[in-house]
Automatic annotation (TrEMBL):
<dbReference type="InterPro" id="IPR050678">
    <property type="entry name" value="DNA_Partitioning_ATPase"/>
</dbReference>
<dbReference type="Pfam" id="PF01656">
    <property type="entry name" value="CbiA"/>
</dbReference>
<dbReference type="InterPro" id="IPR002586">
    <property type="entry name" value="CobQ/CobB/MinD/ParA_Nub-bd_dom"/>
</dbReference>
<dbReference type="InterPro" id="IPR027417">
    <property type="entry name" value="P-loop_NTPase"/>
</dbReference>
<protein>
    <submittedName>
        <fullName>Plasmid segregation oscillating ATPase ParF</fullName>
    </submittedName>
</protein>
<feature type="domain" description="CobQ/CobB/MinD/ParA nucleotide binding">
    <location>
        <begin position="3"/>
        <end position="121"/>
    </location>
</feature>
Length: 240
């Protein structure tokens, strides 16, 4: 499957979501994963390079691609069980190409006016993509939300704006937490730094909701089977 993390507004946490999604699929779901960095700033490519220098972390593969990448993504999908595409915060040829072939598109937005102003154009991009890729499952997700109770209305209003364009909006969201930046700086993921923390729960909820209960359950079963195999080998060779 191909999962695009995209949108038109920088600073909404696209790279952070793409990186954590890749770790989630590789570590917790035991899938073969390829990260594709389409941002000239190399945020995700540099992050992968930093994490692969830490032997205790799950190694990830990453390539940079730009321009007409539709065929390249399709080729990668034939060799990896999951291809996660990180597109920069602008309307690029690479993002349009990714939308035309992706199974899922995760579109992060902060509950801010300047982010919400991009929704009409994203709707236009999605409508164009659906002409070539009718099976595309796209959804907005609210990120970096304020946690103060008196700001809850702001989050609901932002969701309402997105829903008015008849685009799916996930119930799950992320709140402003230092760990998102701290883990990225360390070449790690939120789920590796604090696996039982609130941020890790937020991300798992987003990924499971995006992929759907059926897909999420399949991934969970695959992970459970892999754990059972490891335990069986440990018992067989007396290393448990």
């Amino acid at each position: 499957m191909i999962i695009l993390v995209g949108g038109e507004k920088g600073g909404s946490g696209k790279s952070c979501l793409a990186q954590n999604l890749a770790v989630y699929l590789a570590s917790e779901c035991q899938l073969t994963v390829m990260l594709v960095d389409c941002d000239p700033q190399r945020t995700t490519a540099n992050w992968v390079q930093a994490r692969n220098e830490r032997p205790e972390l799950t190694k990830l593969h990453c390539v940079q691609m730009f321009g007409k990448i539709r065929d390249d993504l399709s080729s990668l999908a034939n060799h990896y069980e999951a291809v996660v595409v990180d597109c920069g915060g602008q309307d690029t040829l690479a993002q349009r190409a990714a939308m035309s072939v992706a199974n899922f598109a995760l579109l992060p937005l902060r509950p801010k006016r300047r982010d919400l102003q991009t929704v009409p154009h994203i709707d236009e991009l999605l409508n164009t993509s659906l002409m070539f890729n009718p099976d595309l499952n796209a959804a907005f997700v609210m990120t970096q939300c304020p946690s103060l109770p008196n700001q809850a209305k702001r989050i609901l209003e932002a969701k309402s704006v997105c829903q008015s364009w008849e685009i799916r909006v996930l119930d799950a969201l992320t709140y402003q937490r230092n760990i998102y930046d701290d883990s990225e700086e360390a070449g790690s993921s939120v789920m590796e730094m604090e696996p039982n923390g609130k941020a890790a729960s937020e991300l798992r909820a987003i990924f499971n909701e995006l992929l759907g209960e059926a897909n999420a359950r399949t991934l969970e079963l695959r992970y459970a089977r892999s754990v059972q195999l490891v335990e069986r080998e440990e018992m067989q060779y007396g290393i448990g």
